[in-house]
Amino acid sequence: MGRMMALTPVLQAWLETLKTSVGIDHKIKGRDFSTFNSEIQDAYRAKVKELYSSHRCNPRVSFLLPWVQIPLFVTMSLTIRGMAGYPLPFLGDSSLPAEPGFADGGAMWFTDLAASDPTWIMPVAIGAANLFNVELNALMVSKTPTRNQIIFRNLFRVLAITMIPIAHQAPMAICLYWLSSGSYSVIQNLAFRMPAVRQRLRLPPLPKTTVEQQKVDS
User: Fold this and answer.
1) Percent of the chain with pLDDT over 70
2) Which PANTHER family match (predicted)?
3) From its phi and psi, is residue 207 left (phi > 0), alpha (psi between -120 and 50) or beta?
4) Residue 136: is its pLDDT beyond 60?
5) Sorting pLDDT into bands at 50, 70 and 90, what band is 104?
6) pTM given for the model
7) 57 contacts 2 by C-beta, under 8 angstroms
8) Could you give the maximum distance between any two Cα atoms of the chain, in Å?
9) Alpha-carbon distance 76 to 73, whole Å?
10) CA 96 – CA 90 distance, rounded (Å)
């Protein structure tokens, strides 16, 4: 992932040069826009493949990693939900009591881990953590994101907000797990943006375009 991030400004600069050169050629030859766009996409994909191969980057690993984590997250959520006496109707008996200690094992306003949060504090915190992660990841995208990147970013924003009412219907035990997971991701994302941490872990520095964008946004 770090190598792919470091190559982003190189690919962006090359793409702008490609658009200019191909645009001039197509204007001289009088070709239509669809041919121009198709040629740019083919050349860009070939360049990306060439750069990733020469720098030993594997985008499939970065793409598959979240999908490997999703089953674990779902399994943990369903397990905790069952222990709290809140199994899904088609996955367990809803009349079963919560595990010993869930009724009074919490703290502060959420002493009952088998009950939902009537104050909405935990659900809102979960939604905020997820939304913060979406925005942090958006900072790693170039200043001119693609259409698909914009669509997925907005989709994840909607999902982050949707998690608020969903978390309000879940027992506090699950909310604690979701908030811990989201908070850990926030801390991890922030830490990986610190030059000292990246140097310590021998990660490549962030692209200059990303750093500049973070300064402008802050």
Assistant:
1) 61
2) CYTOCHROME C OXIDASE ASSEMBLY PROTEIN COX18, MITOCHONDRIAL, OXA1
3) beta
4) yes
5) confident
6) 0.63
7) no
8) 78
9) 5
10) 14
